[in-house]
Design goal:
Blueprint: H1 8-11, H2 17-20, E1 25-30, H3 35-43, E2 57-60, H4 61-64, H5 69-76, E3 81-84, H6 119-135, E4 141-142, H7 153-170, E5 181-185, H8 189-193, H9 196-202, E6 209-212, E7 216-217, H10 224-239, E8 244-246, H11 252-258, E9 263-266, E10 274-275, H12 276-280, H13 285-288, E11 300-303, E12 308-311, H14 312-319, H15 347-363, H16 368-395, H17 404-422
Parallel strand pairs: 1-2, 1-9, 2-3, 4-5, 5-6, 6-8, 8-9
Antiparallel strand pairs: 7-10, 11-12
Helix pairs in contact: 3-15, 6-7, 10-17, 11-16, 16-17
């Protein structure tokens, strides 16, 4: 099928992302692990208290294919849904061994490589992804995309150009309703350093927003320079008139929101980093034989006052210490009638409640400067409480978690806001 570009006059009838994300927005990632927690958070803690109000949600394709009662409820409640097609996973071998991918209709028979992917493959994948998203009830299309690997970058640029062009051509064509189209960009090191390589391409298409999921990003462990480079990449896209969704960034999304990034997503106390190589690595022989470790890491708990997601052991040490628990008390509906009781079991619901509250506070600040001031003060408070936690736990001969990322986040926020002021 030949691929064409929309006429600009046609593009004007599609909503831009400024219409989709006009204020700071958090989108929880809906996976098989998170469904129950989201249901509980939506229900509310008592008959007289309302639950969490979701602005939107990102549903992973491997969960959307199940069409669970939760997804039906989100549609009936009018919560906009964005389906992550997870096509980035198709460049590794692991998806071939993951049972959930077997039901995804556009799953390729073999992994995609820079040399094997053809224009006809791109046309077919783009269309099949959009048909799946439409059937799943997506409010917006998220275009199929492949990683921008450093090796053979020009080939990956070409493949992604074709995918996005095919997605634009299919939008509103036969069997597909016309909806806002969001491009997906998965930059490697080289592309992060040269955002103009992809921005100029994006501006050739009638896209309403850009979802950015770096190949490698860990906001907790990465250096200041890497986080600044990532923020520059996002802001460069935003400055070009395309609002950005920063994917899998956890609490660092609050810093990005203060810097003008339109929206961010993460899982509930998980999926707070990007590491495509880890997701795509070939399974070991032990894993193939069923002897590998399953179930992921242990429970994790987000403590708002520390702006940190902690392991269950670290969080428990803090909330069971009488000298510390008042510093991290949660007054929201998730904990108002329960205190710290069974917080580990309620960690995902608690995360959603708290993140919704944090973003709501940002929305109430009418300017980017006021949002930056708010997040800066929150991070300063988190640093002070973190120092108290560290001293107290060490005095009791208990291992303390690291809060070094808070200083790095403050440095990123300070540098970016100073640059904006100078401009």
């Amino acid at each position: 099928m030949p691929v064409g570009y929309y006429d600009r006059r046609m593009a004007e009838t599609l909503p831009r992302a400024s219409d989709l994300f006009s204020q700071p927005t958090y989108l929880p990632r809906v996976t098989r692990r998170d469904g129950r927690a989201i249901e509980d958070a939506l229900a509310g803690p008592t008959l007289f208290d309302s639950g969490v109000k979701l602005d939107a949600a990102v549903v992973e394709a491997t969960y959307a294919v199940e069409d669970s009662p939760l997804l039906k409820r989100l549609r009936e409640s009018g919560v906009p849904q964005l389906v992550d097609p997870q096509t980035l996973r198709f460049t590794g071998k692991r998806f071939l061994t993951v049972a959930q991918f077997e039901r995804v209709p556009y799953r390729p028979a073999t992994r995609i490589t820079a040399d094997s992917f053809t224009p006809s493959d791109a046309d077919a994948l783009a269309r099949e992804v959009m048909l799946f998203e439409q059937h799943a009830g997506a409010s917006w299309y998220l275009a199929a995309a492949l990683p921008y690997y450093d090796q053979d970058l020009q080939s990956w640029l070409r493949h992604n150009d074709r995918l996005l062009a095919a997605s634009c051509a299919a939008n509103g064509a036969t069997d597909l309703d016309r909806k806002p189209l969001i491009a997906q960009v998965a930059p490697g090191r080289r592309l992060l350093a040269q955002p103009e390589l992809v921005i100029n391409r994006l501006l050739d298409h009638p896209v309403s927003a850009v979802d950015v999921q770096p190949l490698t990003l860990d906001p907790i462990k990465d250096s200041i320079e890497k986080l600044v480079q990532y923020a520059h990449f996002l802001r460069a896209i935003g400055d070009a008139g395309l609002p950005v969704i920063a994917s899998r960034v956890g609490a660092f999304g609050l810093v990005l929101s203060a810097l003008g990034v339109a929206a961010f997503d993460s899982g509930l106390a998980q999926a707070e980093t990007c590491n495509l190589a880890s997701l795509n690595r070939a399974p070991s022989q032990r894993e193939l034989e069923g002897g590998g470790k399953t179930g992921g890491s242990g429970r994790r708990i987000y403590l708002e006052q520390l702006k940190t997601t902690l392991s269950e052991s670290h969080a428990t040490a803090i909330i069971e210490n009488r000298a510390l628990r008042s510093h991290v008390a949660c007054p929201l509906g998730c904990c108002r009638h329960r205190g710290f009781e069974n917080l580990a079991q309620r960690g995902r619901q608690h995360y959603l409640w708290v993140r919704d509250h944090e973003v709501d506070l940002l929305r109430k600040r009418p300017s980017e400067g006021m949002r930056a001031d708010l997040v800066y003060e929150q991070l300063r408070t988190a640093r002070e409480i973190g120092a108290v936690v560290t001293r107290t736990l060490r005095a009791d001969a208990v291992e303390a978690p690291s809060f070094e990322h808070i200083d790095r986040w403050i440095a990123v926020l300070a540098r970016e806001t100073m640059l904006a002021a100078a401009a």
